[in-house]
Amino acid sequence: MKNLKLFTVLTMFMFLGTVALGQTSKTEVNMTSSKNIVEIASNSSDHSTLVTAVKAAGLVDVLSSEGPFTVFAPTNSAFEALPKGTVETLLKKDNQKKLQAVLTYHVLAGDFKAADVVEAIKKGNGKASFKTVNGEEIYAMLDGDKVKIKDKSGNVATVTAADLDASNGVIHVIDTVILP
């Protein structure tokens, strides 16, 4: 079960990096509902870092499982914006648990479409919280018509593409890596 959660988070991370809520990404992703989250992310040139991380974390099987999952997938440029050496350090075998924690922080159990996220924000008077697969919360809010995702440290990601349907959930692409 723990491996499934980690895999789910990593896959969501990859997929979300290419999709934002209510908008389209510059990256074209050939997505069909017959492909799972990992397969979709693997076919996106903007999510190669996410896919590498999911593999290193041992989460491929989890994120390929039935789900459903909602993944906020950071793009390659989101990973590149992290402090120098962060990604390389996390990819080391000795840091697999830390990597799993980061990746599963980008995954929600369940299928949350953009409309579901926006509705939760409106019901929450401008802010909604969601429990991630790693057990910690992320927060969603609107900035005009853009959905923003905030981590517990105050880092904010913008959804750049949304509602990329997969056979086992949905991917929303984000422009920043959020951290537990």
UniProtKB/TrEMBL annotation:
A matching Pfam family: Fasciclin
Residue ranges constituting the FAS1 domain according to the UniProt record: 34-178
Keyword Signal annotated: yes
SUPFAM superfamilies noted in UniProt: FAS1 domain
Keywords annotated in UniProt: Signal
Domain of life the protein comes from: Bacteria
InterPro entries given in the database record: Adhesion/Biosynth-related, FAS1_dom_sf, FAS1_domain
GO CC aspect terms: extracellular space
PANTHER family in the record: FI19380P1, PERIOSTIN-RELATED
Name of this protein: Fasciclin domain-containing protein
Species of origin: Christiangramia lutea
Upper lineage: Bacteria, Pseudomonadati, Bacteroidota, Flavobacteriia, Flavobacteriales
